[in-house]
Amino acid sequence: MKNIRNIALALLLASVSATLQNCGSSKANEEKEEKKAPVEVISTETFTLQKQQLNSTIKIPGELIAYQQVDLYAKVSSFVRKLYADVGTEVKQGQILASMEAPEISAQLSGSESRLRSQEALYQASKANYDRLLETSKTPGTVSQNDLDVALAKQKSDLAQLESARSASREITDNRNYLEIRAPFSGIITARNISTGAYVGPSGKGSEFPLFTLTDQRKLRLVVSVPEAYTSHLKNKSQVEFTVRSLPDQTFSASVSRLAGALDVRLRAQRAEMDVSNTDRKLLPGMIAEVSVPLNSDTPTFAVPKSAVLNSPQGIYVIKIVDQKAQWVPVKTGSSSDDKTEVFGDIQEGDVLIKTVTEEIRDQSEIKNQKLVSN
Q: Does residue 52 contact residue 303 with C-beta atoms inside 8 Å?
């Protein structure tokens, strides 16, 4: 039994020793292979600075307003007799919208017409009297010059009274015409604040709201406030595109028709208006639009990838390579596109810049491995 135990123990020791030797040799082989494997060298991507055209767009909120819109009020105090239009009614220019009645105006008109006829009779009598005296005065000694002058003065006075009566009659006639409310232009009624029998007038209760609001929807104005930094990019006839929330799958276009030529003192922005044809009436006044304004540069400029611009607590920099060393160059940024930014500073065409910069690349640090790529 002792011999069997000794033989088994010897076999176990031999097996453990062989396993340890195999593990040691495999680890040694792995260490040798790792030492033999080449170390990957990380290179710094650079590009050559060149001037190029930077085209981008900005999105600005705008508002669609009616090309023409007017609130219609009553000129004279009266009562609404009949309405000929309501909200949503399409009307033509000159079409009657409502008629009012004011009995006192009819009485005033009758009185003025009577005074006018009376004054016309007086004038005709004084004119005939003067004409007769003038004809008689041709015979010497029949009519004194004083009588002739008095007759002429009476004729002129009656003529002046006649003209005054005519003016008073026209005034009352005009006031009577104000009893009919007519459309000043073709459009659609968007508001009505009166009913039949309501009292309306230029002052007092009921005059604070308009009778009707008339809107021309066939043509709209797109109003945009362009920030000061982008005013140089927008000119007359410039084309813009816009969308509205109610029609998200449609894009509309318009051209700049009017520019304010000055900045709003509150917003520091210039008001721009675009005329929008709306014959199909898909768009409504009051809609908010998202306007894409193109920022097309007239002259080539230095545009670099956004990754090449370093925003640090000390300022904004690009990193230029000079004699294999990194040099931080302070710059100012301008317009931006999706992937590029316009920069201004002590840089010139042909300079080599690092494409992707971080603060880990210190100023005046050595850049050994460079890889030139396209901008």
A: yes
One-character DSSP codes across 146-208 = HHHHHHHHHHHHHHHHHHHHHHHHHHHHHHHHTTEEE-SSSEEEEEE---TT-EE-SSSTT-S
**Tally of residues, the chain:** 375
Q: What does the alpha-carbon distance between residue 298 and residue 349 come to, in Å, rounded to a whole number? A: 18
* β-bridge pairing 247-263 and 239-244: antiparallel
CB atoms closer than 10 angstroms to residue 351? 19
Q: Do 202 and 149 touch, CB atoms closer than 8 A?
A: no
Cα–Cα distance, 55 to 58 (Å, whole number): 11
pLDDT at 2: 45
The CA distance from 343 to 232, in Å, is 17
Sign, CA torsion 137/143/149/151: negative
The pLDDT tens digits of the residues spanning 49-88 come to 888 877 777 889 999 999 999 999 998 888 999 999 999 9
Q: Angle at CA 80, nearest 5°, toward 76 and 85?
A: 110
Residue 301 buriedness (CB in 10 A; 0-12 / 13-18 / 19+): middle
State how beta strands 187-192 and 90-91 pair.
antiparallel
Using DSSP's 3-state secondary structure scheme, residue 353 falls into strand
Mention every residue, 6+ apart, whose C-beta is less than 8 A from residue 88: 188, 189
Residue 195: half-sphere exposure toward Cβ, Cα within 13 Å: 0
